[in-house]
Design goal:
Blueprint lengths: L5 E5 L3 H12 L3 E5 L11 E4 L2 E4 L12 H8 L9 E2 L3 E7 L2 E6 L2 H9 L5 H16 L16 H11 L3 H7 L4 H7 L3 H8 L9 H12 L5 E2 L2 H15 L3 E3 L4 E7 L2 E7 L4 E3 L2 E4 L3 H8 L7 H7 L8 E10 L9 E11 L2 E10 L12 E10 H9 L2 H23 L7 E6 L1 H8 L30 E3 L10 H21 L3
Parallel strand pairs: 1-2, 1-13, 2-9, 6-15, 13-19
Antiparallel strand pairs: 3-4, 5-8, 6-7, 10-11, 11-12, 14-17, 14-18, 15-16, 16-17
Helix pairs in contact: 1-10, 1-16, 3-4, 4-9, 7-8
Bound molecules: flavin-adenine dinucleotide.
Length: 498
């Protein structure tokens, strides 16, 4: 029997693990090399004082049905034992004494939003928004095969899938949520739409589509959290015969005659492979693993035009509390007295707690997180700080945020004990992500969508697999691109001349 060809995969995030699973299914040997001591990449969780801190999934797109759901099940992210939690109120927008509930049920949402409308125009806009949410039963994602391998049948099926939402896409993908907010009169509605789970620079369609998933009970959260989910994917990969090497920091992709032939780790190990899949940040792959020898025009264009293609990240503070939070809403955007973060004024804190998931409570403690959105320039300032200054910054930021939570929320969360402070720099240190972002470029209206081929680089036997291949990134894109990278390699292996 002919020996199986080996695929070496760099990174055990969602895209790397998925690529590994589909490479094995396509008949290759697959080994993943991961720099950290555990799998998951940006989709992970960690422990402090025994308490589990989740660092990813707020909602899982197509958690219950659809093409992505098939993918989640194929890679083991969801199995017959996985319970999916669905929110009744996804988030609350709180401004002084005013609280607006963003219900996931469209009828309740409409009633709630209309009760804050100021005038006929507000009422009309609210109704349009909720109508869009109702229509967005499906999203525009597809998990079948790489776009460059689509045939007429694939295109036809995709058109059928998006046909019901085409009107919403046409009407609202060119309008940002910020522009929509400018049309509203009610301060409460303005605040509510400016502070949702999707940045307000994104198109209103993105917001409708996200709430569409929640409204149709198809964007729940897996009980057990992100870490348990990636461990299930890892188990699936290993059960199919995959090999995983942790703490393997890859330094370069080895290329001979414009053909990838393996990789070298920072401790000098050279690993031979027939194919290489780079399943880590595309900037890192280009700049470090390929030593700046290759460029991707679409990436260069975006990086040289940051006004239109910004990225964003967050400060993520995690606390624990003994108070029973199971009955209070899990996500809140709270208006607080203004404070300054690295030159930018901030007056809203996003608070999230995990009281819905008893399986991750430890010793009676529930985790509460405070999130402040950050810009690229904040990342640059953090990256330039000497170590002591950075430590002092984190200390002061935590004191300020803790103080603001107490001022605005009183005893809502009980006594909060700070366990962990993650900044955009933390994300970069952990997974080599560009500018600390945990997504990719923002999906602002009037920009051209970026979808990169997995084999875009002029190097044979090398494929890219990462959420950076398609704006705006996120777990669904990572899983799709992991599968597509393995399929691209399998296709090229069959059709390549040498
Ligand atoms: C707090 C937070 C909340 C989020 N919430 C959501 C959400 O609700 N919904 C959603 O869709 N997405 C969410 N995301 C984003 C999501 O986690 C990412 O889009 C996704 O996990 C990206 O997966 P990836 O495999 O493409 O990349 P990565 O996760 O970046 O994986 C790359 C892997 O490569 C490894 N690596 C890097 N360099 C090397 C090297 N030199 N050698 C070896 N290994 C290397 C890294 O350690 C990592 O494991 C969130 C992220 C964060 C941090």
């Amino acid at each position: 029997m002919a020996e199986k060809k080996k695929v070496a995969i760099i990174g055990a995030g969602i895209s790397g693990l998925t690529a590994g699973i589909y490479a094995l299914k396509a008949g290759f040997d697959a080994e993943i090399y991961e720099r950290n001591a555990s799998v998951g990449g940006l989709c992970t969780g960690w422990y402090r004082k025994g308490s589990y801190i989740d660092g990813c999934i707020h909602w899982l797109t197509e958690s219950n049905r659809g093409v992505l759901n098939k993918l989640w099940r194929e890679i083991g992210a969801i199995d017959e034992n996985t319970t999916i939690f669905h929110y009744d109120i996804y988030n609350q927008a709180c401004m002084g004494d005013t609280t607006v509930n963003f219900y996931t049920d469209p009828a309740k949402l409409e009633k709630e939003l209309l009760s804050f409308a100021d005038g006929e125009n507000d009422r009309r806009l609210v109704k349009k928004f909720v109508k869009g949410v109702r229509i967005c039963k499906h999203n525009a994602l597809t998990g079948g095969k790489p776009f460059h391998l689509w045939n007429a049948w694939n295109k036809f099926r995709f058109i059928c899938k998006i046909l019901p939402i085409i009107g919403v896409v046409r009407n609202y993908s060119k309008l940002s949520t910020r522009e929509f907010v400018a049309q509203l009169k009610s301060p409460a509605l303005k605040y509510t739409f400016s502070n949702t789970l999707v940045p307000d620079e994104y198109s209103l369609f993105s917001l409708m589509s996200t709430f569409g998933g929640l409204a149709h009970r198809n964007s729940g959260t897996p009980i057990g959290g992100s870490k348990a989910m990636v461990e299930r994917i890892k188990d699936k990969f290993l059960s199919l015969g995959g090999k995983l090497t942790l703490r393997a920091d890859v330094e370069s992709i080895d290329i001979e005659n414009e053909k990838a032939c393996g990789l070298t780790t920072s401790d000098g190990q050279c690993i031979k492979a027939d194919y290489v899949i780079a399943a880590c940040d595309v900037h890192f792959t280009l700049d470090k693993l390929l030593k700046g020898k290759y460029h991707i025009e679409q990436i260069d264009d975006r990086d040289s035009n940051k006004k239109h293609h910004p990225t964003y990240s967050m400060m993520l503070l995690s606390y624990r509390t003994k108070k029973d939070l199971s009955k209070i809403v899990h996500n809140r955007y709270v208006k607080c007295p203004t404070f300054n973060v690295l030159g930018d004024d901030v007056d809203v804190i996003y608070l999230k707690h995990f009281g819905y998931d008893k399986t991750i409570m430890h010793d009676g403690y529930t985790i509460v997180q405070a999130i402040v959105t950050t810009t690229e320039s904040m990342f640059d300032k953090l990256a330039a700080m000497p170590r002591e200054e950075y430590a002092e910054f984190k200390k002061q930021l935590s004191e300020t945020i803790t103080d603001r939570i107490q001022q605005t929320e009183g005893d809502r969360y009980g006594e909060l004990e700070l366990l962990d402070v993650a900044t955009p720099l933390t994300f970069t240190h952990y997974v080599n992500t560009y500018k600390g972002t945990f997504m990719t470029y923002m999906l602002t209206p009037n920009i051209k969508q970026m979808i990169l081929r997995n084999d875009i680089l002029p190097v044979k036997n090398l494929a890219l697999a990462n959420h950076w291949l398609m704006v705006p990134g996120g777990v669904p894109i990572a899983v799709m691109q992991g599968k597509f990278a393995a399929m691209t390699i399998a296709y090229n292996d069959k059709h390549q001349k040498d």
